[in-house]
Amino acid sequence: MDAAVEPATPFSAVTAQTSKLQRQYQALLDQSTPYVLYRWIGTGVALFIFFLRIFLAQGWYIVAYALGIYLLNLFLAFLQPKFDPSNDALDNDMEDGAIGTLPTKKDEEFRPFIRRLPEFKFWHSATRAIAVSFLCSWFEIFNVPVFWPVLVMYWFMLFILTMRKQIQHMIKYRYVPFTIGKARYTKNSA
């Protein structure tokens, strides 16, 4: 007798097609990785189109507010170090200044800044959130009537307070999450 052959289930074709689409999607993501500026320009254009949709439709303010909160949360994770020096439990678990922590004293060894949320994941999550928000803005169920100026003022207050706290944290632990280009040294700098 022949070896047992698994009967084809109705879901096997769907699973095969889904995995094929996932591989193609991942290949597109992998190809887009080096084009940071173009990726962010595309995301900015998508965000502009979404806000244009909200402005012209005069609705779906709660969707825009939720998107704003989510993007703020992503941005804060992008600014924070992966290993937070203010976390006492983490400091106690790591003896002798384990790799990944930021230096807290002047004579400590330099360790590079490692983000809690890498730039690519930040971009990918933000772009997906904008696409989902745009999609939600076409369904009436998400058009909850709210007084939008209150949402705008609340979002700005939330932004100011969280950024103030983040900047104080950056000053206290002396780290800058941004590097602009490579450091250049002159011949007479020594």
Automatic annotation (TrEMBL):
GO cellular component, one term: Golgi membrane
UniProt-annotated location(s): Membrane
Protein name, entry field: Protein RER1
Main subcellular localisation: membrane
Pfam families to which the protein is assigned, alphabetical: Rer1
Membrane topology designation: Multi-pass membrane protein
Species, as recorded: Parathielavia appendiculata
Listed transmembrane segments: 36-56, 62-79, 146-164
